[in-house]
Amino acid sequence: MVALSTQEKEIPFLKQENPLMGSLLEHNRDRLNFYMRLWQEHGNVVGFHFGPFPGVAFFAPEQVRSILVEHGYDFDKGVAIHTIFRAVVGDGIFSSEGEFHRRQRKIMAPPFQPRHIVSYADTMVRYSEQIQRQWQDGEKILINHAMTDLTMSIIGKVLFDADVLKETDELGNAFTMMFSYVGKELTRLIHLPLGWPLPGHAQVRTAARLLQDRLRQMIRERRMRPLDERNDVLSLLLRARYDDGSAMDEDQIIAEALTLFGAGHETTAVALTWAWYLLTQNPERYRKMRQEVDTVLQGRSPTYDALAQLPYTVQVFKEALRLYPPAYAFTRTALKDVLIDGYRVRKNTVALMAPWVMHRNPEHFPDPERFEPERFGPEREKLIPRYAFLPFGAGPRICLGNHFAMMEGPLLLATLAQRVSFEFVSGQQVIPNPSNTLTLRPRDNVSMIVRRRV
User: Fold this and answer.
1) Does residue 378 have a known ligand-binding role?
2) From what superkingdom does this record's organism come (predicted)?
3) Residue 415 and residue 125 in contact, taking contact as beta carbons nearer than 8 Å
């Protein structure tokens, strides 16, 4: 780890910005290239404006560590996250702050500890086996929708013990609508209240009410029976107690459940979509992963224990997360003046960090645009600075489901790779487009042809 500077330095700000909008229009037009331009032209630290509001981009691993770990509670998520998420979802673990966030994280952490998530592995594999049985040899599928349906079904079972939950179902559609609204609103400079009679607002409010009502029904059903009869996360949250012996109230449980659902299916679905795309564009590495799966599993369904014998499959998933991190950028707002690597981040200033850029730094990832899972092999991975690879954040706000995702992704890759192969349909242009979404989805649907394996 490179030592941070203790001598105060002046933040270099962009000199050519729109006098009214700052860099907001360029950011909203093509944010990935905007982030890359900031780093390539100005280095690891550069200031900018979104409208009248100042921000500072930090791209060095040690700077990101300082913000997220050392000063984790000297920053918060910012007004936009608070306003938009709380209006739609409630004040769940993603948007809560300070002592309340610490209290919520402590009570919610046990279901996502490695020793507990092992029990979800069979569910992940079972749903993967089910979805591939629906595909006919030679059938053309939209891999992005297939992965969303799969991960949505898995998280629906894990969280709610619900057997049918996918993008096309009423509840799945409501989730999609609600989180699409959040993604669009986060790109706006001014956030108009959800209660205002504006286009789309009524549908979002209806979707939120539908989800809240269904969750209240699920909670009532569980309270009619002994809570220890079920092992889904909703039941675990109902049983959980704070240090003083009190339980979460119903509104808070609903807010946390909605937050977990959104985070629990979207990020993994996006990562898997990019993993299959990358594999179909790199046939030698696709063959290498299939060979590992065939040799280790020999026709058996994978288990959690089998992951230790599938290192290359895990490396493939990590490399997909590197090249196309679902959380491609995130921000924190300073609660007071904070010194980061000698640069004074003033109170209320936004600090921007972009894994999209950091994962493409050739100093840490040679030939960074190349799909090379081997860079996450045991010896080479040791050479990567700790905070240079940042798919799940870091510090006290690190993604609660990071262990869940790192189990689910490789298990789903192995299960499907054993049964089918995918062929990329030629003529498509697959471009990442984070506009109006919370994660790094492809701009368009991605078509693939299913080939059943003998």
Assistant:
1) no
2) Bacteria
3) yes
